[in-house]
């Protein structure tokens, strides 16, 4: 029998791991392979052969019945070459994107920090990637367990428990053709300690103007205005952010606070005025203020989490009038406050496991104030929303049965909106795991959605002299484009089906294949249209022409579509690992103190891998021994690593395992063992230690080659046995200069393992159907066939790739995007022209070198210094658009639709 003492971030304690004796070497290799920090050789040994093993486990990982779509550990994250958690999320976008929600999409995923909801992405986006121990990505259905709707994937970010770093970064980027440039400077400080974390971040960004003349572009109807029309606007911005989080161990309460201020300004050129003298400009200034808070609190057997996120955005836009008679102004203020309370627990124990329930209650308030000099009155809109709902996950069949594990989940809720009345939503799903490596799920989603206040009430803005292709005449013209809100929008009803399969490949380690199929039907859909022949046919009042048919203006404000239909099939493949055959581990004694990856004999360790707290050990014994027979002990009071061993395949308490643990903890043999262990600890921790009172086998482990007690081994044993401190936090590097204690730790603790590490994420989406029905009796527009109402041409095929390799301080990341060919129909009017879009594949490469790792620098400026070179769109690819004659219209010149092309940059980052 083996006893394990866990130093898992907050709750060290000793626990019994297995029923049968297991060789210490086997345990050691298993732990090292899993990335845990272990020590067996220096562990105390009792007279009866029991061994106390010290190890660590990542606290904050999710333990649920559904397997993750992808997992990334510390070494994988190092291979991204990222500068922040925001960059890490961008690197795994093929995995986090929700691709089975049809034309709607799922948007940004739901984020958790250490398994806990956060108020907003702002709370952690600027954290350096060195602070991350692991990233887990889960399917959309998991979002229900945290009070979210099942249309966004869940990303759980597990942070290191002890970390500190100051990072500074400067970037310079520009297209290979020149014309404009972009610079960015950022400084971030983060401290993660035993009681909480504190973060400050400041970021400055500036981008210069690019005109049509700098790309050699002209418009036939205005040949002399190219230098007065911008392709890319001049922008500048600053952002300041502060984040604070604190955990209170005595009450279990957690608190996090966030505050952000951002200022952004932009300037664009719209050509010359009607008299040909004045340059028309549009200028915008935007200030945003944000604050967020999260509070977590255990309430009996339940966990309550409250989040609040408040935002104020003020925007001031000035537009020069085309007749040069002055300027028009558009002012807007947007206020928003979102409050959510969730209560999660496991109130009922079913034969297949515990039933989990989440109750959520929320109150949101939004206000939009806008005024426009071209409008007679200002617009003010308010919306308050009270929402409440419940989510239930019920295990029907436990894993390991004849047909595998089956779970059923349901969530339902009501939204009471002040301006739209009562809206309802519900979804029902089933999750089946016929084997340990295969997971299948089906979900039915129904919900009512109100249009956003911005779609309803944004100020009307008229942008003159925009380059537009007129499908009716086949010519490129300059027209006025109208944007803003539409107060006449209606509420949307969504009815979706989603089917998923997640297979962990048995022949490829750390590789998963994901498939999703979505069927979406929606009524009264809010759409942001773009100009096309189908749009003009459907909404002729939105297009203004002069008596000769010349296009003058297009109104692209949101509108309501009667019905949309879509079907999407998506495939995802994710893998990570190391290249080549693993080297053999050092023989016992070669790695120092007989532990693979351990320090050489005589060298001092950087910190104790674990500690032991007898008070916590006794408290854990009481959990089992004071709980009446037949009742389930309160597992929340024991260390997480031991708790995980008491769960079944569905993540629920296993009665047989609990009974076995109770017998080991509370029987007569357990009492005797505890007494012997206490005597051994007392002998070792007395100053000076009473070595003669130690068990013979333990004294042998403390001997050096000369047969005498080795002082370093004795010191290490005392650090483990006599301190309730230390643990995981001490064994991890506190600064951002090195990645978690070096590559040997990353690669499983074997110092001989210097193999390159790789990761690969590939997603491919096939759009099978995308249709718009304008009324119950028609007409029907097939957007895949080119009759597009909203947005540009729609491709049937699209792909996204993220891959990388990292080896001894050098790294490369490859990003790829593919969009298939598509068409926009020009209609049946004489002279009309179709547009044909070719397919497009672009690749971005990022090369980087961690100079401290490369040079093995332990101090000085090279330590923590990384230099990165980026080349986006390496092959300078641009999508080719032609009309029915095979010609490229002026509005779709390759340098007009993509004025940037190949984009080069350098990034220098220093971690102090």
UniProtKB/TrEMBL annotation:
- Keyword Transcription regulation assigned to the entry: answer is no
Q: Which UniProt keywords apply?
A: Cell outer membrane, Membrane
Q: Which Gene3D superfamilies match?
A: TonB-dependent receptor, beta-barrel domain, TonB-dependent receptor, plug domain
Q: Which SUPFAM superfamilies match?
A: Porins
Q: What is its main location?
A: membrane
Q: Where is this region: Disordered?
A: 573-615, 722-748
Among PANTHER family, the record links this protein to: PTHR47234, SECRETIN_TONB SHORT N-TERMINAL DOMAIN-CONTAINING PROTEIN
Q: What is this protein called?
A: TonB-dependent receptor
Please tell me the species this chain comes from. Qipengyuania xiapuensis
């Amino acid at each position: 029998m083996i006893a394990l003492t866990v130093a898992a971030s907050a709750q060290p304690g000793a626990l019994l791991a297995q029923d049968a004796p297991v060789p210490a070497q086997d345990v050691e290799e298993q732990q090292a392979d899993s990335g845990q920090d272990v020590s067996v050789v220096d562990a105390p040994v009792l007279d009866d052969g029991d061994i106390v093993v010290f190890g660590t486990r990542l606290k904050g990982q999710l333990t649920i019945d559904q397997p993750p779509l992808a997992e990334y550990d510390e070494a994988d994250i190092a291979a991204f070459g990222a500068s922040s958690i925001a960059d890490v999320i961008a690197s795994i976008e093929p995995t986090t994107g929700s691709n089975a929600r049809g034309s709607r999409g799922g948007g940004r995923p739901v984020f958790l920090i250490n398994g806990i909801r956060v108020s907003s992405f702002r709370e952690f986006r600027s954290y350096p990637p060195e602070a991350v121990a692991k990233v887990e990505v889960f399917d959309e259905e998991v979002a229900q367990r945290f009070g979210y709707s099942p249309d966004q994937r869940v990303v759980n970010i597990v942070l290191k428990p002890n970390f500190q770093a100051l990072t500074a970064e400067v970037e310079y980027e520009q297209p290979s053709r020149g014309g404009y440039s972009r610079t960015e400077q950022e400084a971030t400080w983060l401290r993660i300690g035993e009681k909480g974390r504190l973060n400050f971040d400041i970021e400055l960004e500036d981008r210069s103007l690019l005109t049509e003349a700098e790309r050699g572009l002209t418009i036939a109807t205005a040949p002399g205005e190219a230098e007065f029309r911008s392709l890319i606007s001049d922008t500048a911005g600053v952002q300041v952010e502060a984040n604070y989080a604190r955990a209170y161990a005595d009450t279990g309460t957690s608190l996090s606070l966030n505050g952000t201020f951002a200022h952004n300004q932009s300037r664009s050129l719209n050509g010359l005025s009607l008299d040909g003298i004045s340059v028309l400009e549009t200028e915008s200034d935007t200030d945003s203020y944000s604050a967020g808070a999260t509070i977590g609190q255990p309430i009996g057997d339940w966990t309550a989490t409250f989040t609040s996120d408040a935002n104020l955005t003020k925007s001031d836009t000035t537009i020069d009038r085309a007749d040069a008679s002055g300027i028009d102004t558009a002012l807007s203020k947007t206020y928003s406050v979102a409050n959510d309370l969730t209560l999660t627990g496991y109130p009922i124990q079913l034969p297949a496991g515990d039933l989990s329930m989440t109750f959520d209650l929320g109150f949101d308030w939004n206000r939009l104030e806008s005024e426009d000099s071209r409008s007679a009155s200002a617009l003010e809109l308010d919306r308050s929303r009270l929402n409440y709902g419940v989510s239930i996950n019920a295990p029907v069949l436990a894993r390991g049965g004849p047909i595998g594990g089956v779970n059923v989940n349901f969530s339902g809720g009501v939204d009471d909106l002040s301006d739209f009345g009562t809206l309802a939503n519900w979804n029902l799903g089933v999750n089946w795991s016929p084997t340990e490596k295969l997971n299948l799920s089906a979900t039915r989603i129904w919900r009512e959605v109100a249009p956003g206040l911005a779609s309803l009430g944004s100020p009307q803005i008229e942008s003159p002299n925009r380059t537009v292709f007129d499908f009716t005449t086949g010519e490129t013209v300059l027209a006025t484009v109208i944007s803003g809100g539409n107060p006449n929008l209606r509420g949307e009803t969504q009815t979706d089906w989603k089917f998923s399969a997640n297979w962990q490949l048995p022949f490829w380690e750390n590789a998963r294949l994901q498939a999703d199929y979505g069927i979406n039907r929606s009524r009264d859909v809010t759409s942001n249209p773009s100009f096309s022949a189908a749009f003009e046919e459907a909404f002729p009042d939105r297009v203004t022409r002069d008596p000769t048919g010349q296009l003058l203006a297009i109104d692209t404000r949101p509108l309501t579509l009667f019905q949309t239909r879509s079907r999407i099939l998506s495939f995802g493949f994710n893998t990570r690992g190391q290249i080549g055959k693993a080297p053999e581990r050092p023989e016992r004694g070669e790695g120092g103190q007989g532990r693979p990856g351990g320090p050489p004999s005589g060298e001092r360790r950087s910190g104790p891998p674990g500690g032991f707290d007898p008070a916590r050990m006794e408290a854990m014994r009481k959990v089992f021994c004071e709980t009446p027979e037949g009742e389930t002990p309160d597992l929340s009071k024991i260390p997480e690593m031991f708790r995980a061993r008491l769960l079944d395949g569905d993540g629920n308490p296993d009665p047989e395992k609990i009974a076995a643990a109770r017998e080991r903890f509370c029987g007569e043999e357990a009492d005797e063992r505890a007494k012997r262990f206490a005597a051994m600890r007392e002998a070792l921790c007395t100053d000076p230690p009473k070595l003669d009172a130690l068990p013979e086998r333990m004294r042998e482990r403390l001997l050096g080659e000369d047969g005498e007690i080795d002082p370093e081994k004795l010191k290490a044993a005392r650090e483990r046995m006599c301190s309730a401190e230390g643990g995981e936090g001490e064994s991890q590097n506190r600064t951002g200069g090195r990645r978690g204690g070096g590559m040997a730790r990353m690669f499983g603790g074997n110092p001989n393992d210097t193999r390159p590490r790789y990761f690969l994420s590939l997603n491919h989406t096939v759009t099978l159907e995308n249709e718009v029905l304008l009324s119950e009796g028609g007409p029907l527009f097939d957007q895949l066939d080119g009759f597009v109402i909203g947005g540009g041409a729609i491709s049937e095929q699209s792909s996204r790739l993220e891959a990388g390799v990292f080896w001894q301080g050098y790294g490369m990341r490859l990003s790829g995007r593919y969009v298939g060919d598509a068409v926009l129909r020009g209609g049946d009017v004489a002279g009309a022209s179709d547009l044909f879009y070719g397919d497009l594949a672009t690749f971005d490469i990022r090369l980087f070198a961690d100079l401290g790792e490369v040079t093995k620098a332990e101090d000085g400026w090279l330590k923590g210094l990384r230099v990165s070179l980026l080349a986006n769109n390496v092959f300078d690819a641009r999508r080719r658009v032609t009309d029915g004659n095979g010609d490229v219209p002026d509005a779709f010149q390759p340098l007009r639709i993509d004025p940037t092309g190949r984009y080069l940059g350098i990034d220098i980052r220093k971690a102090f």
